Amino acid sequence: MCGIAGIFSSRDSRTVATVMTDFLHHRGPDDVGVEELKSVVGKPSGAFGHRRLAIMDLSTHGHQPMFSHDERLCLTYNGEIYNFMELRAELVQAGVQFRSVCDTEVILEGWARQGTAFFARLRGMFALAIWDSVSGKGYLVRDVFGIKPLYVAERDGDVLFASEVRALLATERIPRKLSSEAVRSYLSTGSVAEPLTVIEGIAAIPPGCVVEITQREDSFVIGRPQRFSSLSSPSDEPKLHRHSHVHRIRNALRESVRYHLVSDVPVAVFLSGGIDSSAIAGLVREVSALPIETFTVVFEEAAFSEAVAARESAKRFGTQHHEIMLSGEDLLNALPDVFSSMDQPSLDGLNTFVVSRAVRSFGLKVVLSGLGGDELFGGYPSFHRAQTLAPIFKLPRAVRRLGAAGASSFADMRAARIGMLLRDSSPSHAAYLASRTLFGDRVVSRLMGRKVFRNDPIPVPDDVDISGMSVAQQVSLYEVTGYMRNTLLRDSDVFSMAHALELRTPFVDIEVARVAHEAAADLHLKPGSVKPLLVEAVSDLLPHDIIHRQKMGFTLPFKTWMRNELFSEVDSVLTGSSAENVRISPVEVRDIWRGFLDHRQGVTWSRPWALYTLMRWADQNDISYEPGDLRAHCNPGYSLTG
């Protein structure tokens, strides 16, 4: 796990690459490298930078940027490939002589021989850049889930990329200008949906894609993304019985956990006490005899704390368990560091910051997380809602529109949400939006001072036919490509790497996702049931009380702290002048804040906290709408929508 950065340019570029690489020091304190790129005629072509967090092959042989044997290719890479030893053995059989025992060189030599097709064979998480000095082309690549981030910007004929948006800003070549579409996206869901970023002119490389960078005279341009892998593909498996689904899920999870334990340093586990993290801890114990350290964040507020459940799981698995006590005062004191680490504004992620800091303080570099279990196995209310809504969507659209118009005429927020659901195109899409909407279109319009419509579809792979899926499969894909990608994975990467900690997600694995997707075709949830196929697959591992206790999402006690320890901090931002800097209405912001303090129906803690986070982050990073017109210097026509 590392940080990467670089620039494709016909000019001397070492300084620019060095600035970005130095900014990413927190992601990889173990080693640093910057290499200039040349074409076959010796012409400058840019520079790559790399910050290393040494996990596998701790020797200097893993140093990056790395060149191929023949010096033709240069690679800078962030991530882990868990099946690299099998791929390495194949390449050795084909005559490749390796200099290291790390996955980096396997990627380099595999690409040299198989090209883009090789990326579809990688089981892991990765974001990387390759320069081919013979063809004079560069390539930016990202794993199919988007576990590892990669951002790109085109500026004055150069193409810059980095693991973090703020690294690109550190070059001072890109104006610190907010994207109005990104702000709308953030207000709608609490995070900015890819390929947008909060900064105008910076985009995220689409997951599962290769983006080619081509030189035209003295300028480099970004090509259209070419997909090498998809989250969902037709299965040759015949229709299976429930027992077969359960058996395949268990085998896939066991194999994934075994892969995710591949490391030359110790591996810990985040243990919240829920089904997902307990399943990961139990599977670690099943496939490994190594000692396990587990970590959980606990609170004095018993209604929010999972301390008892986590202790029960830790006792069952015989782990060395650590509880990280967090109070409102602790969070208040940590906020400067939190916002110094936050790459883009996000409603979520503070828990990851806190527990990652604690894990790293114990000298650990790698930790496993249960992230992904809810999205793949039906753990969210959106799955139940979609199945409840399905019969309604069999009514004629005209009837549903009439009902939507009637519901929307009421000022009550619940009625407005019903209207939004009825207007949607499918029960799965409606259920997803109902679960993930922070502010509806009307409120976003008032906040931004202009009429906005969230008519953009939820991003899914462009080669996937959603219409052929079951309702549960559709919801799962929305959750994976929406909430998980744009919020959970992004925050997990940023806040763990802020402490040079590699966070691994065994559920977020292509084989686990495949068997979960196939099982979801037959998934019928009953009221009160949570992830029934997953629970059945790991039931022998888990304590009885963990399986049968009521599901509670891991949430900090914000609704209490924002009225007490955090009140002055949040109030000073929401009632100050920061709203004007991000061009949202101060009057509306203060009304939402008052609504929360007055316990107004529908104004939960998440709404003022999201506004606070946006404004505080913008202040911290000197971001506003004011820096000049980016389109005067930056190509506005490129698109990374895939």
Mind explaining what this structure looks like?
With 642 residues, this protein is an alpha+beta fold. 41% of the residues lie in helices and 15% in strands. The chain contains 25 helices and 18 strands. Strands 4, 5, 6, 7, 11, 12 and 13 form a 7-stranded antiparallel β-sheet that branches. A 6-stranded antiparallel β-sheet has the order 2-3-1-9-8-10. Helix 7 (275-287) packs parallel to helix 8 (307-317), helix 12 (381-389) runs antiparallel to helix 15 (427-436) and helix 13 runs antiparallel to helix 14 (413-423). The two termini are 26 Å apart.
Oligomer: single chain
Helix proportion range? 40-55%
Low-confidence stretches: 628-638
Gap between N and C termini? 26 Å
Strand percentage: 15-25%
Helices and strands: which structural class? alpha+beta
How many helices in DSSP terms?
A: 25
Write down how many β-strands occur, each being a DSSP E stretch of 2 or more residues: 18
| Global geometry | globular
Mean of residue pLDDT? 88
Largest sheet: 7 strands, antiparallel
Rg of Cα set: 24 Å
